[in-house]
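A reminder before we start the practical. When you read a complex entry, don't treat the lines as separate problems. The point of joint prediction is that each chain is placed relative to the others, so the output describes one connected object in space. Small molecules and nucleic acid strands, if listed, are placed in the same frame. In the example below there are two entries. Take a minute to note the order of the lines before looking further.
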Amino acid sequence: MKGKVRLGFVVILIALAMAQIVAWDVFAETTIISGNVRGSIQITAPSGISSWELDSLAAQPNTQTGTLNVKANQNWQVKVKDADATNTNGLMAEWDGAAYVSSGNKLLNAMKVAAASEITLPTEGNIQTGTKTTASGQDVTVTFKQTVSWDDQILTGGHTYRIVVTFTGSLVP
Amino acid sequence: MILVRAMDFTRLNIICIFSIIFIFSFVGVRASSALGVGGAIFNYEIAPGGHISHEMVVSIDRNDPPIDIEVEVVGFGQLLDGGNMELKKELDMSPYSARTFLNVSPTSFHLKPGESQKVLLEGYVPANVGDGGRYAIVYLHSLPQGEGKIGVILAIDVPVLLTIQESPKIYNGEITNITLEKPVSGKSINVSIIYKNTGNYHYKALAEVLLMDEADNVLSRNATPLTFSSIIPSCSRIFKLSLSPNDTLMPGTYYVNSIVKLDNGTILDSKKEKLQSETKFEVEKSTTNIWILICLIVVILILVSYILWRIRRARAIIRKTNGDYPLELEKIPQVA
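Here is the predicted structure of the whole assembly.
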């Protein structure tokens, strides 16, 4: 008799333990965290150049350099273009400080922009490609090249020659 | 008192110099703003009729000057070198364009130093969109910065590549142009291939060229690496290679077989071009360093042998004069 009572007691204990395990499983909450790193790119173009003395007597082309910095977490490319087909279209044009001069002078030779590749504006094209960078990014030396002819006009009245270069960065598909 | 004044003056000078250096370095080093975009590529699989939503975060650094940004969705074109081309509505003729059913908001905004702005790309894919892939670019750009001779516009292209679910992907293409430079003795044969993706999906490809004689014997072979970026449907890519045959090519008829293929070896297109060589063609072999090294070793060996020979001769003379070597004196040259 005592043996049967003990056995029953053990069975009840086991049943209770099983129930507890099932209860734990039912009420346990699992937080699943999933995510991914998004493709990101940051581009710092060379600052605009204001004091460039273009000289027809100097070694041609006249050059100015600047630094482009790219931070990217996958393959990237940077291209240049002259977005202004009306006023400049690759040629530095007369600027009065606020706007391009209507029917103003233009330099006779197109500007070239070079890094790993050289592009003659207004043609657009990649000047540099690269792979995933470090946190400090990749510095790229960009050279602006402008040939000055003896036939180029000297501007007066505070006017200068100007062009706007677009630097476009992109992750590579 | 005079000493103190002199020291003050020196200190003042140092402060002035450092101030000038600081001001000039600040002006000289200052770059344009750093324009950054999170979510800068959108590669997504979507069912016809499905809704697209992609958030981008545009930001500038804390130390940057304020900047005005404009955003628009444009067609996805590509330059021959693989660079993106932002195609406005009037130029975007591709049947694989996603520009028509995508919108961004806001389309312009002002960022102060350290600020960021969320930009949302949204749209519904038409139910009858078709197969393969659909493509667009979210073009973010600043207004011109800098008042001087060269102004700068900062821009970022966000490529949008949509894959239409459960639709066949067609990997087709066509070599549309081959340019061969006629063989000139002493130079390689340069080959340019223009290849167009005529399929409905983007992919990377490589080009291979074979120089063959009339009996189809391969005389030279070269291949490019896989393209850095995928070729978008309807877009073309240029491959540039050179061939340098090992043996002299006699005047005659040759063939250049150009092949464009996928990474897995699947041939997308090939074309055979006739190459007529009027003169004997031999590529100049560059002098390799190993030959210079061999020549140097030979010269050194000759010199060492000569020196050893002279030493042995001198020793022989010394022994002879000491009388312990039975040589005839008249046959040994006199040493001064």
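Discuss with your neighbour: Chain B touches chain A through 43 residues (CB under 8 Å). What might explain this?
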